[in-house]
Specification:
Elements lengths: L1 H17 L7 E2 L4 H15 L11 E7 L4 E7 L4 E11 L2 E9 L2
Antiparallel strand pairs: 1-4, 2-3, 3-4, 4-5
């Protein structure tokens, strides 16, 4: 009985350790709304430029240019910027792979 319990414990542990690592970041197929929502929530940390005069970055527009790419327009009330963005997914998690502000 003790051996079966240990074996079941080890199998369960192996399965739990395997699940988080079986997904890799891949090209994301997301909706327009998912992209816009993610960018709206994370634009301050994504932008390499700092907001000026106490302003806060907010997204004014987002447009897809491909399954995992888009263009985001954002501003802080004083300056407006445009950036090319590439998304990727791991399991159900979404993140920005590349964020390049246009000059």
């Amino acid at each position: 009985m003790k051996r079966i319990t240990i074996l079941l414990f080890l199998l369960t542990l192996a399965a739990l350790l395997y699940i988080p690592f079986r997904y890799e970041w891949t090209t994301a197929t997301i909706t327009q709304e998912e992209g816009r929502t993610y960018l709206a929530q994370h634009i301050t940390e994504l932008s390499p430029e700092k907001a000026v005069l106490g302003g806060t970055w907010y997204v004014t527009d987002f447009q897809f240019t491909g399954n995992d790419q888009g263009i985001v327009w954002y501003e802080d009330g004083h300056i407006a910027l445009v950036a090319d963005v590439t998304f990727e997914k791991k399991g159900g998690a979404l993140r920005v792979k590349d964020f390049l502000v246009r000059k």
